[in-house]
Design a protein that fits this description.
Shape: globular
Structural class: alpha+beta
Number of helices: 7
Strand content: 25-35%
Radius of gyration: 19 Å
Largest sheet: 6 strands, mixed
Oligomer: single chain
Length: 340
Amino acid sequence: TPSQFQKTAMNGAPRLDTGLFFLNDRFAPSDPAAGFDERADESMKIRVRDLEGGTEKATASANPRNKAGERMFSRRPVSIANGWVAAPPATTSLDTHAFELRKHPTSFRDWYTLPPAGVEAMNNPQMPYYNEVRAIVAEAIPNVDRVLVFDHNVRNAGRLASGTPDRGSVQGYAGTVHGDYTHASGLVRANQLLTAAGVSDPAERAALLARRFLVVNVWRPIAEVQSMPLAVCDGSTVQPSDLVPFDIFQPLADGSERRGQIYQGKHSSAQRWYYYPTMQPEDVLLLKTFDSAQDGRPRWALHTAFKDPTSPPDARPRESIEARCLVLLKEPQPRGSAKL
């Protein structure tokens, strides 16, 4: 049953005029053919925070400066549609908008005691929530062959700042417009994940990835969202010129780093943005963060947390979990699509 707070949001203004943090326009996209460019200027790279206590290098949330002293991200005015009014459930889909909202209640409650995320968690029997995620994805997407849930993040800025013993496994909010994978990194990550899942034969991996595959982010609040909601962009309104590849470096337990790549988003007046105020734990937002098909369907959903100016002064810090999945489909790769 919706709370009074949610009823107010559902019946409220159809649009919210606020601001989101985008990459500054002066940063031009890298050459797509270059893939992971070792020669990239350090200002174009992001080092994610070492949750084990290491030094925080440059992060998107810290809005680092480039070598010229200029901030990488700036707040741009955006009119965000209230999805309950402008894009109610069942009117958006992964294939046409790169996101969709679904109702899927959960009985899981142990969010802060989940074992650490990572590829080794894919078949861990102590990860019952992953079973729910697989079911959500299989229900939402036609022609699913296999769903590999390989990662999750629990976010709660209040708990992170409180000194709670488990804060090392909790993260804050990603406050700049971004996409989780690029054309290059989505292909590489899919191959890595299949290897980690036990598909050791290169020919078998190639056969699986010769079909269409997706990477999907399953985002769920674990309590009513009263602050820092998620905004998502209609993927059909995103142009290649809006996407700038950034390298990221994830510190690993052995002291090495895993290199990846994400898109940072540039502002465009053609983009259409949505959010669903006061989402409840049964509200699940699916975000397509990679699609191997290159046939005109949107391939990525840019998204960001943002400060909602209508949140009450005593609003609770947002609590949410996102789980990332490699989704292998039974359908063939559309002609002209990406191949490893």
